[in-house]
Amino acid sequence: xxxxAFSYYLNQDxxxxxxxxxxxxxxxxxxxxxxxxxxxxxxxxxxxxDKASHAYGGRRTNRTETLYNQGGISYVYLCYGIHNLxxxxxxxxxxxxxxxxxxxxxxxxxxxxxxRRNMSATKPAISSGPGSAAKALGIDRSFxxxxxxxxxxxxxxxxxxxxxxxxxxxxxxxxxxxxxDALLPWRFFVKDNKYVSKPNKI
Length: 202
Fold this sequence. Notes:
The protein has helices at residues 14-20, 110-117, 130-136, and strands at residues 2-3, 25-30, 33-46, 73-79, 83-90, 97-108, 153-157, 167-170, 187-190. The protein is mainly beta.
């Protein structure tokens, strides 16, 4: 059980990373309180070529500039003005790839997560969907551009591996605007895991 090395995030194959991150454990430490969850659902965003990506076509704004850093930092943005969504920036500098963490299975600090979400950790809704997963872990906009090998937010490998037939690949959620790229099967989740967001049927 050790933190993923900085080099892990420099992998230029964001599709591989999005799948490989399933089973890894995402940690946060806020005011000395540690919470963590097993990553059970992700989405890959393939930089400037991907019409669903904030960086499509090389778009650079104050918000997207984070994506152009080399991998190993967080990208947190506000969706619909209410949900903070947490992404892992990957690849090399200037190549704005990212993996959105869509769901976690509560593992450490469940009581803290229950307080943050005002519901029982046995309820899938506590950390199902990217807004809920971030909230359960206490991730807000202040977590943007954090070093993922630091002490505030990091990912560990606990040796949890899912066989190929237990991983589902489907089109991403809520990216209809991305035209043909909306159909790419770049959303990955663990089959039959109750914390995976809807739609979760194959």
